[in-house]
Amino acid sequence: MLTIDTLTNEIDGKAILKGLSLTINAGEIHAIMGPNGAGKSTLAYTLGGRPGYEVTGGTATFDGADLFDLDPHERAAAGLFLGFQYPVEIPGVSNLQFLRESLNSQKRARGEKELNGGEFIRLAKEKAALLGLDMDMLKRPVNVGFSGGEKKRAEMVQMGILDPKLAILDETDSGLDIDALKIVGAGINAIMRKPDKAVLLITHYQRLLDYVKPDYVHVLAGGRIVKSGGPELALELEREGYSDVVGAEVVG
Amino acid sequence: MLDLPTSSDESWRYSDLSALQSVWPLPAPVRIDVAAGDSAHHHLLQNAADSAAAVHDYVVTVGDGARCDFHVLNIGGKLGRVTIDVTLGRGSHFELGGAILGSGDQTLEIVTSVTHAQPDATSGQTIRSILSQRATGSYLGKIAVARDAQRTDAFQSVKAMLLDRTATANAKPELEIYADDVKCAHGATVGELDKAALFYMASRGMDPATAKTLLLRSFVAGVFDSVADEAVRETLEAAAIAKLEAMV
């Protein structure tokens, strides 16, 4: 579904990703872990197409298309979802309005029929209930006045409504207490654990992986994948630390 | 015949004086007198043809205990200028909601002078401007508080959004206060579209034009919330949205 080959990039002239390669197939959940400053969020933003995250080399192919040929909104319409570590507040625009415009923009781009008001509200209710989010929250402006946990749950409601093929979730577990973590983990499983979908979980800690079991775990350090393994690698990292598992000079 | 104003006349400082020539001299202002205890609603949709100059002058008196709500959508013409000169009686209220949406080479202005002549009057002015290309949008707002007009409470909230670096927003509050028990609040900001919000919206699939229009609609939303007549509110909102969609 997604093939990244020797990807390099720069932000303000500084090289962050230095030849990153990764392949994710349909039906798989991958976790990328790594120390602070390894380039985890940079990878997410670069795949999402955030302005300023300049690709300097390598390729990324998503469902047969050159990902870097597509504008950010076209990547979303193609089935990519980016979960933000810090979801953005948009005063004056309600969640419902935001999501309906987003979903219908995607449907227009794919040549599908747009949802009318009633159809959309039914869909939103169903997905909000899945994440235990009150419908009243969705009537409020996007992320404005939401707690950290509410923002992350709202992100998962967005994911449920937009129904992507591939979700790249950047530190979706940060700012969540244990109860919220369980709800968000169950939400990810319910929405994305399907044979035709895939997930890339970017996380600093292993605790989210207790609830969303990855098929593969990768260690990102110094702008590259330095080690890959099964779920046991996450436990090893948690136990022994990044320096011991992949070498202090790599993490440095 | 009166001479054409010059740019050294303070209230014409940012105007388009060559466009003004075609309509000079101006007719007498429209008078609105709200009788004591009454309540009045007025609105103006200034949507003149592209090359035209449109100047609308109002002189408003609000009687004791009366209230006047005024809504202005200023979007048309080469020059579109709306001036409102208000005098407030005891315990009266004046409320202005104004939006300026300018593109191309338009010069659009709202110029107000609100005189609190008697005690206990309140006034509120909310102005939102969105300007693209080489447009100029100006708000000049004077508040005068007479010596005896104690317990005056007035505010001006002025926000402008520039879609291009070549557009210009002017905001000039002017306070002239002779009483001592007075609240006059004014705030003015000039900003650009939030790039983080635009990327967030794009990441959810919104095309750039849809995302920008949604952000701009939310920026001017609220200006027309207090329009009492629903048909009028819908007319103003529809005209504003049509103009915004043409701008992004």
What's the layout of helices and strands?
The complex is a heterodimer of chains A (252) and B (248).
Chain A: E1 2-11, E2 14-24, E3 29-33, H1 40-48, E4 54-62, E5 65-66, H2 72-77, E6 80-83, E7 90-94, H3 95-110, H4 117-130, H5 135-139, E8 141-142, H6 148-162, E9 166-170, H7 178-192, E10 198-203, E11 216-221, E12 224-229, H8 232-246, H9 248-251
Parallel strand pairs in A: 3-10, 3-11, 6-9, 9-10
Antiparallel strand pairs in A: 1-2, 1-4, 4-5, 7-8, 11-12
Chain B: H1 17-20, E1 30-34, E2 39-46, E3 53-62, E4 67-74, E5 79-88, E6 93-102, E7 107-116, E8 122-131, E9 136-145, E10 152-162, E11 168-177, E12 182-191, H2 195-203, H3 208-220, H4 230-247
Parallel strand pairs in B: 1-3, 2-4, 3-5, 4-6, 5-7, 6-8, 7-9, 8-10, 9-11, 10-12
Helix pairs in contact in B: 3-4
Low-confidence stretches of chain A: none
**Class by SSE composition of chain A:** alpha/beta
Radius of gyration of chain A: 18 Å
**Helices and strands of chain B, in N-to-C order?**
HEEEEEEEEEEEEHHH
The main sheet of chain A orders its strands as 6-9-10-3-11-12
- Work out the strand percent of chain B: over 45%
Question: Any overview of this molecule?
Answer:
The complex is a heterodimer of chains A (252) and B (248). Chain A is 39% helix and 28% strand. Chain A contains nine helices and twelve strands. Chain B is of the alpha/beta class. Chain B has one domain. Chain B contains four helices and twelve strands. In chain B, strands 1-3-5-7-9-11 form a six-stranded parallel beta sheet, with no helix packed on it. A six-stranded parallel beta sheet of chain B has the order 2-4-6-8-10-12, covered by helices on one side. The radius of gyration of chain B is 18 Å and the shape is globular. The relative contact order of chain B is 0.14. Classes of the chains: A alpha/beta (252), B alpha/beta (248).
